[in-house]
């Protein structure tokens, strides 16, 4: 089962919840040095916040594989090019322009669709890989771990997230817990992190800002993508009842509440997962998983 942990607003505790959920689902005893076969009980954790991945600070994985990823962009063979302008006509993203005796390619706008290559009548265009980041995989104890990291200055995170998912998520995940830690917000990288999920767990806080961005996240996950959603209220008790009233009106279940607790903040600042700093939460997160899994039956 694939769960995307998301939040319209940054800083709500999304990574705290995602990491705690993965650790609570992991087998109690596991030899992390020999991974010739994956136990279906081993959770798979993907940090999809490729612009600023931070789950590794808490899970402390041992990285076993790393590869470069990027976007295929056009390269023009000027010995064949007749400057007819067909490539610019078919590009929906204005990533290629033809001026007298010159073809301009703008990699930051290219989406790698391949239309220019397919439509060039002289076969003067081929695609080359423009490296935009890396993807990595390994193990954090009993948790299989993967993350993507976008190179500084690159504009598009979606291709990295897509390739990360294709690399590590099996075609038939079955009942294995697969947890995606999405980027904050509701833009294209978040949509890509939600795509293909069975459930979206939205982490929010009981403040006007939290409610505003929760509304946006629900619109994307449930109204646009048609995915079931549930809510975790973090720092419960610090704000008002706006989030509760909204969830009740929209028939969205509040699956868990985490109170404002200095011990949680101190553990976070030291890179210690919540369920390790406060072991009593391990059972609560295991119950959260069971409630999510039960909603699909």
Helix fraction?
Answer: 25-40%
- Which class of secondary structure composition applies to the elements? alpha/beta
Report the order of strands and helices: EHEHEHEEHEEHEHEHEHEHHH
The major sheet is characterized as:
9 strands, mixed
Q: Report, as a whole number of angstroms, the end-to-end distance.
A: 11 Å
On the 0 to 100 scale, the average pLDDT is 93
Q: Class of the largest domain, according to the CATH hierarchy?
A: Alpha Beta
CA radius of gyration: 22 Å
Folded structure, characterized:
By secondary structure, this protein is an alpha/beta fold. The protein folds into 2 domains: 2-54 and 177-295, Rossmann fold (3-Layer(aba) Sandwich); 78-123, 2-Layer Sandwich (Alpha-Beta Plaits). 33% of the residues lie in helices and 27% in strands. It is built from 11 helices and 11 strands. The chain has helices at residues 14-25, 56-59, 86-90, 115-119, 158-168, 188-194, 208-224, 242-250, 262-269, 274-277, 280-295; strands at 2-6, 44-47, 62-76, 96-99, 102-105, 125-140, 143-150, 178-181, 199-204, 229-236, 254-259. A 9-stranded mixed sheet has the order 3-6-7-2-8-1-9-10-11, with helices on both faces. A two-stranded antiparallel sheet has the order 4-5. A hairpin with a 2-residue loop joins strand 4 and strand 5 (102-105). Helix 1 (14-25) crosses helix 11 and helix 5 packs parallel to helix 6. The chain is elongated, with a radius of gyration of 22 Å.
């Amino acid at each position: 089962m694939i769960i995307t942990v998301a939040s319209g607003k940054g800083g709500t505790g999304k990574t705290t919840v995602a990491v705690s959920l993965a650790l609570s689902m992991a087998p109690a005893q596991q030899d992390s040095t020999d991974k010739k076969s994956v136990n279906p009980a081993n959770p798979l954790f993907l940090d999809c916040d490729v612009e600023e991945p931070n789950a590794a600070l808490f899970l402390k994985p041992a990285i076993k594989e790393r590869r470069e990823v990027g976007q295929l962009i056009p390269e023009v063979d000027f010995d064949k090019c007749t400057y007819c302008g067909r490539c610019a006509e078919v590009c929906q993203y204005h990533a290629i322009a033809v001026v007298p005796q010159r073809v301009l390619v703008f990699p930051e706008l290219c989406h790698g669709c391949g239309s220019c290559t397919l439509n060039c009548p002289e076969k003067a265009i081929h695609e080359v890989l423009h490296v935009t980041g890396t993807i990595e995989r390994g193990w954090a104890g009993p948790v299989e771990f993967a993350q993507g990291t976008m190179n500084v200055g690159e504009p598009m995170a979606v291709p990295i997230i897509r390739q990360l998912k294709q690399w590590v998520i099996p075609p038939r995940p079955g009942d294995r817990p697969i947890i995606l830690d999405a980027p904050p917000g509701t833009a294209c990288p978040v949509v890509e992190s939600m795509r293909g999920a069975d459930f979206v767990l939205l982490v929010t806080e009981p403040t006007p800002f939290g409610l505003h961005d929760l509304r946006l996240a629900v619109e994307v996950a449930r109204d646009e993508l048609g995915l079931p959603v549930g809510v975790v209220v973090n720092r419960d008790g610090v704000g008002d009842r706006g989030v509760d009233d909204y969830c009740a009106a929209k028939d969205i279940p509040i699956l868990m509440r985490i109170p404002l607790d200095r011990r949680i903040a101190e553990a976070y600042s030291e890179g210690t997962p919540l369920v390790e700093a406060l072991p009593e939460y391990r059972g609560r997160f295991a119950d959260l998983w069971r409630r999510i899994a039960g909603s699909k039956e």
